[in-house]
């Protein structure tokens, strides 16, 4: 099925290129989530820039409709569609109020400043702890991009099985994503034309790096990569940098913050997932939750 899809997909790209003399390509629609096919698009198709939005499927139609309406009625024009962080945000007061409702004889809660938090979480990840990472506004779209994520150490070859046993309870062959800071992407992956800020393409890892991060590499040597920059997600960028300082690996394993329900959205859902699984640490903004 994948082979047939790709045959027609590349025919359509070729025909579009012949009729529209541009080296820019924008893809939308549910098929744009086919990250394997997207990863095969390169300059041999006459394309130098590829853009796939963070919600190219049906959900993104809401944003498209809003844009059409805005332009049609000549209201304020929106020219920044880069940030996927459009969902609910929760304040310190919300978390403090929630803490009063939980059984603190079983759960220890600590508030940290940003520097201490990043250092603590990076150290815990390097010690093979599994972290529920809940920050700021929720992502809009199909991928967890560092605000509603479960994070782990990609160097641990067993961590994929551990996450599946402790939390996800899903098929063992399904890979987790590597989130890499932008400065080092070309050292680790065979990049072509995709920005991959939203995990939109599957890309080959460089052969000499494959064994360093085995838990984020698929059986064929490919990875569904997320590029993280200061512009896209500053706190997540700082966390990966802190992990790099400890390990010389600029990558974290990133998977969606959920068990097998939809990705958690609010504080209660995040805590419930932490509480009913064997997740080691929950981070709600600057608050760290540990099981006693």
Mean pLDDT: 92
* Percent of residues in β-strands: 15-25%
Determine the number of helices (DSSP H or I, runs of at least 4 residues): 9
Coarse shape: globular
Main β-sheet description: 8 strands, mixed
In whole angstroms, how far apart are the ends? 49 Å
> What structural category characterises the helix and strand content?
alpha/beta
Radius of gyration, rounded? Answer: 20 Å
Helix content: 25-40%
Low-confidence stretches: none
Question: Could you give the order of strands across the largest sheet?
Answer: 3-12-11-4-5-10-6-9
Number of E strands? 12
Helix and strand element order: HEHEHHEHEEHEHEEEHEHEE
Summarize the structure in words:
The protein is an alpha/beta fold. Helices cover 32% and strands 17% of the residues. It contains 9 helices and 12 strands. The protein has an 8-stranded mixed beta sheet, sandwiched between helices. α5 packs across α8 (234-247). The radius of gyration is 20 Å and the shape is globular.
